[in-house]
Amino acid sequence: MKEVCQVCLHHCCLEEGQTGFCGARRNEGGRIVCGNYGRVTSLALDPIEKKPLRRFKPGSLVLSVGSYGCNLRCPFCQNHEISMAGQAGLFPETAQISPKVLADKALKLKSFGNTGVAFTYNEPLVGWEYVRDTARLVKEKGMDNILVTNGSSSLAVLGELLPYMDAMNIDLKGFSQEYYQRLGGDLETVKEFITQATASCHVELTTLIVPGENDSPKEMEQEAMWIASVSRDIPLHVTRFFPRYRMTDRNATDPAKVYELAERAGKYLSYVFVGNC
Predict the structure, then answer these.
(1) Is residue 218 packed enough to be buried (19+ CB in 10 Å), middle (13-18) or exposed (0-12)?
(2) 79 to each of 76, 215, 244, 255, how far by Cα in Å?
(3) Over its length of 277 residues, how does the chain's per-residue pLDDT go in tens digits?
(4) Structural domain range at position 139
(5) For residue 74, how many other CB atoms are within 10 A of its CB?
(6) Does some domain include residue 20?
(7) Taking the model in full, what pTM does it have?
C-alpha cells in the first residue's frame, strides 16, 4: 500500500519497503517510518562556533550528533559520505544510541563545558522523531538544543521541534528559485521555515558562496534585504566554498569576493560574519 511522506517538500509516494528521496524514511507496514532513528554516524564535542553560531553562548562547547540522509542534492556537500548514504541501500557504519543515552552523555560532559546537543552533520530533519525525542530529554536536564538544518522541511515538523529548540543555524543556499531547484529544493519553503523559526528561537543563517552559482552582488543584496524584513538582527555567515564532492573541478571562492558580498549584506544586516577565509 502506497503512503505519502509529509516531512518535506518532496512528498515521496512510497510503496511498501521503498525508501524516499532522503534515503532515511521508508514505508514499513503501510506507515512512513524514520529508518535512521538512533543510528549515529558522527559524535563530537565541538566549539559552538563550528555550527556556526556566533551570537549564541560564544566560547562554549556542544555535543554534536549526526546520522545519515538528506533531502537536498548539493554537489558541493562536505559530508556527502553520510548525507547521501541510503540512496541505493548503502549505509555508513553506525552506532545505535538511544535518546536517553545521548541525553545522559550530554549531561556527563557538562563538566567539560558542554552546554547541550547539536543535531548536525547530515540533515537532521529527515529523522526528526529522534531529534524530538532526544531534545525533550536534553531540555529536562536543563541543557540546550541546537539544530543545524537546510530548512527544507514542513512547518508541521518544525512545530514539533520548536518547543525544545534554543538555537538554529539554517542554510540559506542562495536567493534564486532556479538555484534551489538545481539543488533539489525550493526557496519559498526555506523562507517560510526561517520566518517561523526566528519567531521562536535564536536563528543564524549561512550562505556558502559558490563561484558562478550564487555569487552576484545583486543576489546577495536581495537576500540581505529579505532577511532584514524578518529581522535585521539575524546573523548571516557568508562562507567561502572549497572544491568538494561533485564540484572538485571548481576553484575555491576568491576571498575578496566573499568579503565583497559580506560588505553588501552588511548594508542591511546588523551582524555579518565571514567564514573559511
Answers:
(1) exposed
(2) 9, 22, 9, 22
(3) 799 999 999 999 999 999 999 999 999 999 999 999 999 999 999 999 999 999 999 999 999 999 999 999 999 998 888 888 766 566 778 899 999 999 999 999 999 999 999 999 999 999 999 999 999 999 999 999 999 999 999 999 999 999 999 999 999 999 999 999 999 999 999 999 999 999 999 999 999 999 999 999 999 999 999 999 999 999 999 999 999 999 999 999 999 999 999 999 999 999 999 999 9
(4) 37-275
(5) 24
(6) no
(7) 0.96
Q: Which three cell numbers stand for residue 132?
A: 524530538
Q: Give the chain's domain count.
A: 1
* Cell numbers describing residue 191: 523562507
142 occurs within a structural domain:
yes
Indicate the pairing of strand 3-4 with strand 13-14. Answer: antiparallel
Please count the other Cβ atoms lying within 10 Å of the Cβ belonging to residue 270. 13
Whether 127 maps to a domain, the answer reads: yes
Residue 14 placed within a domain: no
CATH of the domain at 124: 3.20.20.70
Phi first, then psi, for residue 233 (nearest 5°) are: -90, 5
